[in-house]
Design a protein that fits this description.
Radius of gyration: 21 Å
Largest sheet: 7 strands, mixed
Low-confidence stretches: none
Shape: globular
Number of strands: 18
Distance between the termini: 15 Å
Length: 424
C-alpha cells in the first residue's frame, strides 16, 4: 500500500493528513507554530511528519505542502532567512506601494498593500545583511525546500500575488524588467501545483523514516487546498464555491473566466482539472474570521454560547469585526478600522452580532464576485474550523440564499494530499 501526504500550514496551526490510493484518510497529525518565526515552521514540519505512524511514513510516495497566501521571506544562498517573514495580513507602507506602482500596471493585483511583490520591495531593506544572492520565497516554497533541498522553487498559486501571469505561465515583462534591475534577487522558478520538484533529501528521509524515492511536489495556498478538500473526490462543476472559515475568511468560486480587480482585492487562481481543462478560482480573502472570535471567546464558550442562539431572528448589531486595522476583501483598505461597538453586556448577544456580521460580509463578497462577472454560484461548501458551527451555518444560509453543501473534508491538508495523489 502506498500513501500520499498533504501538510497544511494555516493561520492557526499545522495539520498533516495521509491518504491511501483510494483517497481515504489513514492518519492525521497536528502541531502548533508561530507564523512569524520561520524556525518554528521547520520544527512543526518535521514534528507532524514524525508523528505519523512509522509504517505509513515508510510507504509515503509523495508530499505536497500548502501555506498561507502572501506569507513570504527572503533567504541567503544557504536557505537561511535574513529577516522575520511578512505574513499574509501585513500591509506595506504607502512609500513601498509608490515604488511598486513604478513597475506594475495600474490596478494590478500586486498594487495591493498585502501583495507578495509589495512585501518583496519592503524586505529589500534587509539585503545588506546577506550574501550577494537573495532568494524570495513563499511559506510553502521554503517548507518544500527543507524537504527537497532545491532553493528558489515556487508554484503558480503562491506566485500569483508576486505578479506571475497564470494565463501565459510566465513572469510578465514589467516584472522581468524589475528583476534585471535587481539581479541580486532570485525570483523563484515556477511549477504547476504538485508538479514534482525532486526527491526528498537523503538525510531528511533517514531522519523521518521516509523512503529515499519519496517525491516532493510544488506547493499551493491553504485556501486552494481547502477548496479541493471541500469538493473531495467529486468532479467540481463551474459555479461551485467554497468559503474557508479559519482565522480569516476566504471565498472562492470555480469560474470559466478570470476576474481580477485590485480595488476590491479580487484575484483568480489558475485551476487545472483533467476533466474540465483550465478554469479559474475567483475570490478574495478577508481578515474577518475566527481570529476575531478568539479575541473574545474560548472554543468551549463559542460552542456553549452558539447553542443558546436562535439563528432565525436577525441581530440588530452591525459590526465589521477585524482583529486589527485593515482588510483586503470585499473592502480592500489597509486603513479600515474594526467596528465592534456597541458591545452589549450579554455575551450571547455579542457573539450573535459577530457571527451575523461575518455572514453579512460573506454575502457581500459573493454578491460582488457575481456583479464583476464570475460564473453564477450554484452551491457553497464550507471549509475550516468555522464549518463545525451549525448555528453559524444557519445564519449564513439566511444571508446567502444559495444551496449549502456539506464538505467532504474541512481540513486543507486533505486537499494537499489529494493533489499529491492526483498528480503522481
Amino acid at each position: 500500500m502506498n500513501y500520499f501526504l498533504g501538510i497544511d500550514f494555516g493561520t492557526s496551526g499545522v495539520r498533516a493528513i495521509a491518504i491511501n490510493g483510494d483517497r481515504e484518510i489513514v492518519a492525521i497529525a497536528r502541531s502548533d507554530y508561530d507564523i512569524r518565526d520561520c524556525e518554528t515552521w521547520r520544527v512543526a514540519l518535521y514534528e507532524v511528519i514524525a508523528s505519523l505512524p512509522k509504517q505509513i511514513r515508510q510507504k509515503t510516495r509523495k508530499i505536497v505542502i500548502d501555506g498561507t497566501s502572501a506569507t513570504v521571506l527572503i533567504c541567503d544562498r544557504d536557505g537561511k532567512a535574513i529577516a522575520p517573514p511578512m505574513i499574509y495580513s501585513d500591509a506595506c507602507e504607502s512609500e513601498v506601494l509608490d515604488r511598486v506602482k513604478k513597475f506594475a500596471p495600474n490596478q494590478h493585483l500586486v498594487c495591493g498593500a498585502t501583495s507578495s511583490f509589495a512585501k518583496l520591495i519592503s524586505l529589500m531593506k534587509y539585503s545588506g545583511q546577506a550574501s550577494k544572492e537573495l532568494y524570495f520565497l513563499h511559506q510553502a516554497d521554503w517548507l518544500g525546500y527543507l524537504l527537497h533541498g532545491k532553493l528558489g522553487v515556487s508554484d503558480y498559486h503562491n506566485a500569483l500575488k508576486l505578479g506571475y501571469d497564470p494565463l501565459l505561465l510566465t513572469y510578465p515583462n514589467w516584472l522581468q524588467v524589475w528583476a534585471l534591475a535587481n539581479s541580486h534577487v532570485i525570483l523563484p522558478e515556477i511549477f504547476a501545483p504538485s508538479a514534482t520538484v525532486g526527491n526528498i533529501q537523503g538525510a531528511i528521509a533517514l531522519q523521518l523514516d521516509l523512503p529515499l524515492d519519496c517525491v516532493i511536489g510544488a506547493g499551493t495556498t491553504d485556501s486552494n487546498a481547502a477548496f479541493l478538500a471541500s469538493v473531495g473526490t467529486a468532479t467540481p462543476t463551474i459555479g461551485t464555491a467554497v468559503t474557508s472559515l479559519g482565522s480569516t475568511m476566504v471565498l472562492k468560486v470555480l469560474s470559466d473566466r478570470s476576474i481580477n480587480n485590485a480595488r476590491y482585492g479580487i484575484y483568480s487562481h489558475r485551476f487545472e482539472h483533467p476533466d474540465l481543462g483550465c478554469l479559474w478560482l475567483v475570490g478574495g480573502a478577508s481578515n474577518v474570521g475566527g481570529a476575531v472570535l478568539r479575541q473574545f471567546f474560548t472554543d468551549l464558550e463559542l460552542q456553549e454560547l452558539s447553542d443558546r442562539l436562535d439563528p432565525n431572528i436577525p441581530s440588530p448589531l452591525d459590526y465589521y469585526p477585524l482583529p486589527k486595522i485593515g482588510d483586503r476583501f470585499p473592502i480592500n483598505d489597509p486603513h479600515l478600522a474594526p467596528r465592534l461597538e456597541p458591545r452589549p453586556d450579554d455575551r450571547v448577544e455579542f457573539l450573535y452580532g459577530l457571527l451575523e456580521s461575518m455572514a453579512r460580509i460573506e454575502a457581500q463578497g459573493y454578491t460582488l464576485l457575481q456583479q464583476l462577472g464570475a460564473s453564477p454560484i450554484l452551491q457553497i461548501y464550507t471549509a475550516g474550523g468555522g464549518a463545525k458551527n451549525q448555528v453559524w451555518a444557519k445564519i449564513r444560509d439566511r444571508y446567502l440564499q444559495i444551496p449549502m453543501q456539506n464538505s467532504l473534508q474541512t481540513e486543507a491538508a486533505y486537499g494537499a494530499a489529494l493533489l499529491a495523489k492526483i498528480s503522481l
